[in-house]
Design goal:
The complex is a heterodimer of chains A (115) and B (112).
Chain A (H helix, E strand, L loop, with lengths): L1 E6 L2 E5 L4 E9 L4 E7 L5 E7 L5 E3 L5 E5 L4 E6 L8 E8 L9 E2 L3 E6 L1
Parallel strand pairs in A: 2-11
Antiparallel strand pairs in A: 1-3, 3-8, 4-5, 4-9, 6-7, 7-8, 9-10, 9-11
Chain B lengths: L3 E4 L2 E4 L5 E7 L5 E7 L5 E9 L2 E4 L7 E2 L9 E3 L8 E8 L7 E2 L3 E5 L1
Parallel strand pairs in B: 2-11
Antiparallel strand pairs in B: 1-3, 3-8, 4-5, 4-9, 5-6, 7-8, 9-10, 9-11
Classes of the chains: A mainly beta (115), B mainly beta (112).
Chain lengths: 115, 112
Amino acid sequence: AQSVTQLGSHVSVSEGALVLLRCNYSSSVPPYLFWYVQYPNQGLQLLLKYTSAATLVKGINGFEAEFKKSETSFHLTKPSAHMSDAAEYFCAVSAGGTSYGKLTFGQGTILTVHP
Amino acid sequence: EADIYQTPRYLVIGTGKKITLECSQTMGHDKMYWYQQDPGMELHLIHYSYGVNSTEKGDLSSESTVSRIRTEHFPLTLESARPSHTSQYLCASSRGGSTEAFFGQGTRLTVV
């Protein structure tokens, strides 16, 4: 069984400030972890993914995330927020293997960026 | 860029009507999925398919049904819509052995 917990349903930052979105997971097997972004009235776009290679994963739009097995965490960061980063972000876990694409999602974090 | 399409994007329909939400992908992916997303909530897997004539129910129980007659097409049907079916429905696909799922833009369904 797998689960994802995103700490903080809303995060607000100033433009240029550090973005930190928290994600903790639970998985009975080595996990595959993902961050997706959803803009209003749009589908989900993959930001980055961890698939048991490098623990520090770089994604699109300047985002990165670090897999920490000891903390069961996969937090998303970006050094400097931009107004266009305002969206909802979802952390997700998959068991891999034949379960690729069968994702368990967190409840989402809405990121607001202030000028 | 992902090529997965959902129609309609928005649908308002009366209680008791039969509806079909369309999902098509042009990537030749063998695996396809339907997720349901209630407002302000996480996504839940309601159906998936690993190939033609293969369909399974997901983690969240749903009164909807799906079919997979062609690789590229994975429609979702509600025989009798109810207000409790009001939600956003997202379709996704992935290639066998790939870790990445591509999502459509979703259908926002409102049942009045």
